[in-house]
Every structure is written in C-alpha cells, then in structure tokens.
Amino acid sequence: MEAERIPGIDPTATPSGDGCADCLASEAPGWWFHLRRCAACGRIGCCDSSPSQHASRHARESGHPVLTSFEPGEDWFWNAETGQFLDGPAMSPPTAHPDAQPVPGPAGMVPPDWQQHLN
User: Which residue of 2, 18, 37, 84 has the fewest C-beta atoms within 10 A of its own C-beta?
Assistant: First the structure.
C-alpha cells in the first residue's frame, strides 16, 4: 500500500548540499544560523534568524511553502504560507547537516559579532 501523499512534501527529494545553497553561491559567501530544507525539492536554505533568510525566500518564490529542519535531532515541518507546523513523513537522508559542521556556519565565514546580525 502506498503512503498517503502530503501536498508540498516529497520524501524522495534529496538535500541540495550541506549548507545554504544561496549563501554558498554568492560572490561574497554568506553565513547562517540554522538550516532549513525545502520539503518539495530538497533545496537547503538559511533560517529566518539568519541574515539572508534564504529558506523563506525560496518558499515564497518557488511556490514550495513547506520547510523542514536540516538540523541534527530535529524532524519538524513548517508551512511558511500558513505559519503552521505540520506532521510529515520521514525524509530521504541525509536529514541534517553533518554533526561536525559548526552552528552558526560555515566555518570561517561567521563574523565574531554574529549575534548582532541575527533577525
């Protein structure tokens, strides 16, 4: 029997990488506080506390409103359109950035006064 499909969540979508795709791709690489994963396509973005808020921007611009945590030990889903937490299926691995990756990250890109830059 096939599992019930939840709109906006594709459990087979693999993560785009270990860090925020947009922060890492910018000319002056950015940094993040926590990471979020698009539940529809797997794109990794930085959280709303991070300076650039790429995960929410992706949700708005792509029409993929459901995000899930990409932090070790977290397995929640959030609908960025409705502002509600959701229950969802197990996502394909990896379900978090590597344990050795610092938070905030990435290593070497976080300013010493990073707390002053959080939203």
Answer: 2
Cis amide bond preceding 94, omega within 30: yes
pLDDT digits (tens, 9 = 90+) for 88-100: 999 999 999 999 9
pTM value is 0.93
Find how far residue 99's CA is from the centre of its chain: 15
Q: Give the DSSP per-residue string, 34-93.
A: SEEEETTT--EEE-TTSSS-HHHHHHHHHT--EEEE-STT---EEETTTTEEE--PPPPS
Cis check for the bond before 98: say yes or no (omega within 30 of 0). Answer: no
